[in-house]
Amino acid sequence: MTVNSKTYWKRAASTLLVTALVGVTAACGSNTSDKPQTGGAAKAPTGPVKLKLAYDSGNTIPSTSADSNEAMKYLQDKLGIQFDLTVNAWEIYKEKIRVQIASGDVPDAFAWRTMDDFIVGMIKAGEIVPLDEYIDKYPNLKKQKDLYLTKYQNKTYAIANVRNPVASGDAPLIRQDWLDALGLQAPKTMDDLYNVAKAFSFNDPDKNGKKDTYGIQIGFGANAFIGVSGLQEPFGIQDKWVKQADGKYIPYFATPAFKEYLTWMNKAFKDGLIDPDFAVTDGKTAESKVVSKGQSGIFFHYMSRVNDFEDNFKKANPNAKLMPFEPVKGPAGLQGATGRVEYGGLFVSKKAAQDPAKMQKLMEWLDFGASPEGQTFNLYGAEGIHFTKKDGKNEVKSELISRDMPGTFLRTLPMQPTEEMFVSKKNSEEAQKIVINGNKMLEMFLKIPTPMDFAFSPVGSKYRAEADAFINTNIVKVIMGNTEVKDWDGVVKQWYDRFEGAKWIEEIAATAGK
């Protein structure tokens, strides 16, 4: 049998990891000296503290030698740290770090993008530590801790590189010029949304005498929906797992609210309000129908589509205008948008936590990245080297920043201000103002996902891709009328039966500490 190298390393890493973690668990036993030391002040180190770090980067990787990278040297000198870095693109990194850890070489801190069997195995073996009591001691990290959602049994295990949650994919966007042409106002309720979408589909909003528009743009590609979360929020559908009166959890698609949503979507599709080709329209195509072709009038997506609309459709149609509007209210008065959060982050090893000086420097490095000073370093590098201040402005040496890439040496940043999210300076002042005002509006309606949405389940890990495809393809059938809403309970029962749903939910609740 021929085994390709990628498969070989995956198998080798899995075997080594199991062996290594079993050995670690046995060795820990009742040895109290192995417990992380969190109390007391660290002794002042006599020289730079060495930190062994591993993480992925989406950028080209610069030199990671202080002798040839002035950004790295500056940061080391400033923080009293000697970096020992392994930085790779994700596709390379994820294989290398598995093998490295499986061989027993666990970095002081390393990045991982999710809570999966790899990370849970390390938690159970005691190889990585919870970070809650450390975070509260560092002011810039403490400000962000509500956005650190990578938890196991209600303890925080990773520090994420956070983004402003207003970078949501649920922003309601509408063709304002179509509203004006038809003498309509932006919708405020789901009934309003239905009526406006119907007018967009049938009342010739672009006034070209053709039936070539429709109200609502959604899409479906790779077994996932595009642009539907903003349509679910008015029905109170946000959390993946919903707690019932008896304290037990069920999946969101098993709730009565989800059947209300399906009923509305089925009627809207049957009545011609939704892109008739949505089931074969992937994400990029759905976007193009809004921002390039100008075919649809309502889209729940990222605020940056305003920029794309100006760059494309608006060039040939200068009177066209895509505008944000407030999330609509559902039958029970519910409204909102799901905030965007980063999952995964930097995990810290037990051996780092056992060394107070090492742990202190590690947290200082992370806290620096999350500070305003860290943001300046990320953007401009070191003052006096990569930039100088003149008349209150930064004069940047672009070639040095391109060479040294200062941001490579940080894993945290302060949260980007709302007025900067998706604001593109290359776009017109009008577009920038639309995006800024839209972000500020949306900020008032944001709902942050819960850690339980990302909790680990061995059963879920086994079935997730197949189970998601099963549910989503059946949702498509209901929306298009191939399956009736009254038969949805049978679909849910099939999900429970085929994918060990009851056990899956039990595991989710247990690992989330619920």
From TrEMBL:
Output the PANTHER family linked to this UniProt entry.
Answer: ARABINOSE-BINDING PROTEIN-RELATED, POLYGALACTURONAN_RHAMNOGALACTURONAN-BINDING PROTEIN YTCQ
Species of provenance:
Paenibacillus radicis
The answer, when asked if tRNA-binding is one of the entry's keywords, is no
Record's keyword terms, sorted? Cell membrane, Lipoprotein, Membrane, Palmitate, Signal
- Segments forming a coiled coil: none
**Top-level taxonomic group:** Bacteria
The protein in question is named: Extracellular solute-binding protein
User: Which Pfam families does the entry mention?
Assistant: SBP_bac_1
Using the record, list the residue span of the signal peptide; answer none if the entry has no such feature.
Answer: 1-26
Q: Which PROSITE patterns match?
A: PROKAR_LIPOPROTEIN
Matching InterPro entries: Bact_solute-bd_prot1 (IPR050490), SBP (IPR006059)
